[in-house]
Amino acid sequence: MADVNRGNRPLSPHLQIYRPQLTSITSILTRITGNALIVAALLITWWLLAAASGEGYFALVDGIVRSWFGKLVFLGAIWAVWYHFLAGLRHLYYDSGRGLDIPTAEKLGWACIGGSVVLTLITVIIL
């Protein structure tokens, strides 16, 4: 059926109107960290394939992995693993029907962010 009211409908408010909320930022951050972990996994796979390929190629890839860029990628991956883990626990808590009110959701969002930073620092100190 044709939409006869096509031009008269109001447009949905967009980013210029809505203030970013912590719950939406943490949701987007969960997706970003998941994709970042894929990049880190590809880097590890490349390193392992280079180790199986030969000494010269492995030296090249190993140099990249051990460079400041590789260390930065793996530091980010450690943080992403912890953040993704804590966000998953938070999501399981939400799935039980608890913590869905705004104050609790914001506290859990800050707990995911702060907890992932603390756990990353502990991991780096231990390793």
Give the helix/strand layout.
Elements: H1 22-53, H2 55-65, H3 68-95, H4 102-126
Helix pairs in contact: 1-2, 1-3, 3-4
Walkthrough of the structure:
With 127 residues, this protein is mainly alpha-helical. The chain has one domain (21-126): 3 helical TM bundles of succinate and fumarate reductases. It has four helices and no strands. The chain has helices at residues 22-53, 55-65, 68-95, 102-126. Helix 1 (22-53) packs across helix 3 (68-95). It starts with 21 loop residues before the first helix and ends with a helix. The mean pLDDT is 90.
- Helix fraction bin: over 70%
- Any idea what the CATH architecture is? Up-down Bundle
Q: Low-confidence parts, pLDDT < 50 over ≥5 residues? A: none
Mean pLDDT: 90
Number of strands: 0
Q: How far apart, in Å, are the first and last alpha carbons? A: 63 Å
The quaternary state of the protein chains shown equals single chain
The percentage of residues in β strands lies in under 5%
Which topology does CATH recognise?
A: 3 helical TM bundles of succinate and fumarate reductases
Provide the descriptors you would attach to this structure in a database record.
4 helices, 3 helical TM bundles of succinate and fumarate reductases, extended, 127 residues, mainly alpha, 76% helix, single chain
Give me a quick take on this structure.
The protein is an all-alpha fold and 127 residues long. It has helices spanning 22-53, 55-65, 68-95, 102-126. It contains 4 helices and no strands.
